[in-house]
Design a protein that fits this description.
mainly alpha, three-stranded antiparallel beta sheet, 18 helices, 52% helix
């Protein structure tokens, strides 16, 4: 049997691949219980949590990030949008350029195995947990069926069950009771994804790290806002007593005022008085709390989605579903996430499947997460109709695929084809009436220049002449099979086009312009 090695040069032990190694347990250092570090969180406490993570122990940081996702609805929404925008993309297996027969076989094998992994997109959401926390680890559960290694499951493991080596802070190690520094991960056993939001060690590369400060400030703001609302919602209760009141009577009045806040009932002497003072003029204070909370949300949106404008966006019509999904995450971030995920899948899933089932190959196929720019289907349909009317051949299968419309079966009822309408040109009499009315209105307001009158008359008579030409061209365009055929029909029909009326109109217009010009010259000379 061939000895296998992973991309780090570590020897592969086939026997260990079938064991579940990182499952939690009550007697294990890997437990599902949390210490809830967000309770009474302060800037000093947050800094200490980050310092512990920077020194190789991200346990508290991971628990804090988990709580942030649970407690902050806005953060949960935008982070979920970021992860699902990638996990829902198409995945392709691509053989290397100029692949030989063995390399093509490896690509086909990998494609079959990926198709057999159940709920792969949901498991990719777990892998993309690294976007928020900086890293993620999922254990591969292998099964051997007739000498074939098959991925039966990919189980997400809590990031707090892992730590980093002290030397480079880049090697992920599993917590183990027998090893204080953690246990090295078994090769071909884990999908480890490191998200790189910025340069640096993986534990500092997650989006939730900068979001933690906005989460902290927003928590402070919410506490003050709730306290303010509790006080502002109730009127101030003022008890008044006469100067002669004894201490016992004052105590009775104070107790009565206090009871009014909860019981809405009290008994006081007749000589005493309780007034309710309504709080007013504090609208600006309430707006301040809301503005601060909204500011924190916007900053988290910038960090996670790369923008703030799309958080509350709505769908825009035909063909915008995919565009809306992608538009919520800035395009460069989406493509970066897809590239990083593609590298992880090719390394931790693609290579193990090929090596375990057919042995090493010279060049491995790539698992690629495809990001296609969303198309405006309404514009595509308009352009396709225009090009088709000009004689450009367009494949039906192309349009069926683009619009995601199933091709009709034989004998299936289909929609009738809409009749193409020629361009609306005004009737000659209607145009003349409209133009005369417009000229009359213009004459009432200011005297018309001769050149304007000549141009207007040419427009009226030219429209009537052009109607016949356009009708003939429209007929030829409908009958033509191609652009070349349409061109030939135009050239053949040119000698038969009726140009007498248009030529006569142009000649009359030139004559009128010349006469008007001479009249202006003579009139100017007479005035001089």
């Amino acid at each position: 049997m061939v000895t296998l090695y992973n991309h780090h040069g570590e020897k592969i032990d086939r026997g260990e691949l079938k064991e579940e190694q990182s499952a939690p347990g009550l007697r294990s250092v890997r437990q599902v219980f949390s210490s809830y570090p967000s309770n009474a969180l302060t800037p000093v406490r947050l800094s200490s949590i980050f310092q512990m993570a920077d020194q190789g122990d991200p346990h508290a940081q991971c628990e804090l990030f988990e709580e942030m996702e649970e407690k902050d609805l806005h953060l949960t929404s935008v982070l979920g949008t970021r992860k699902r925008a990638v996990s829902g993309l198409e995945i392709r297996v691509e053989a290397p350029d100029g692949a030989d027969a063995r390399e093509k076989k490896a690509a086909d094998l990998l494609g079959e195995h990926l198709a057999g992994i159940e709920n792969l997109s949901e498991k990719l959401v777990d892998v993309l947990d690294a976007i928020g926390k900086g890293y993620s680890a999922s254990e591969i559960i292998w099964e051997i069926y007739k000498q074939e290694a098959i991925i039966a499951d990919i189980k997400w493991r809590e990031p707090k069950w892992f730590r980093f080596d002290q030397d480079t802070m880049s090697e992920l190690r599993m917590l183990d009771i027998a090893s204080p520094d953690g246990r090295a991960l078994t090769p071909f056993k884990y999908v480890t994804h490191f998200h790189k939001a910025k340069s640096g060690i993986p534990v500092r590369g997650g989006i939730l790290r900068p979001c933690a400060w906005m989460y902290l400030f927003k928590n402070y703001d919410f506490k003050d806002w709730v306290t303010f609302a509790e006080i502002y919602a109730q009127p101030l209760r003022v008890g008044k007593y006469p100067n002669s009141a004894s201490e016992q009577e004052k105590d009775v009045l104070l107790q009565a005022v206090a009871n009014m806040g909860s019981d809405a009932a009290a008994i006081i002497p007749e000589s005493m008085l309780i007034e309710f003072v309504e709080a007013g003029g504090k609208t600006g204070s309430t707006d301040l709390y809301e503005r601060l909370a909204r500011f924190c949300d916007e900053q988290m949106s910038k960090g996670v989605l790369g923008q703030t404008s799309s958080a509350d966006a709505q769908s825009g019509g035909i063909g915008t579903g995919q565009a809306d999904l992608h538009g919520e995450v800035r395009d460069d971030l989406l493509k970066s996430d897809a590239r990083q995920l593609s590298g992880t899948l090719s390394r931790d899933i693609g290579r193990p499947i090929i090596d375990l089932n057919m042995g090493p190959v010279r060049r491995y196929p790539k698992i690629t997460v495809i990001v296609e720019d969303p198309e405006d289907l309404a514009l595509l349909g308009k352009n396709a109709n225009l090009l088709h009317s000009m004689g450009l051949p367009i494949g039906q299968d192309f349009l069926y695929k683009k619009f995601n419309i199933p091709k009709p079966e034989a004998g299936e009822d289909i929609l009738p084809q809409a009749m193409r309408q020629p361009p609306d040109l005004p009737d000659a009499d209607e145009q003349q009436s409209t133009d005369l009315a417009a000229n009359a209105q213009q004459a009432d307001s200011s005297p018309a220049e001769p050149s304007d009158m000549i141009a207007e008359r040419m427009n009226q008579e030219g429209t009537v002449s052009m109607r016949g030409w356009l009708d003939a061209i429209e007929t030829m365009l409908a009958q033509a099979d191609s652009l070349e055929h349409f061109r030939a029909m135009l050239l053949a029909a040119y000698p038969d086009l009726d140009g007498d009326r248009m030529g006569s109109m142009i000649a009359n217009a030139m004559l009128a312009a010349e006469v008007a010009g001479r009249f202006d010259i003579e009139e100017s000379a007479g005035d001089a």
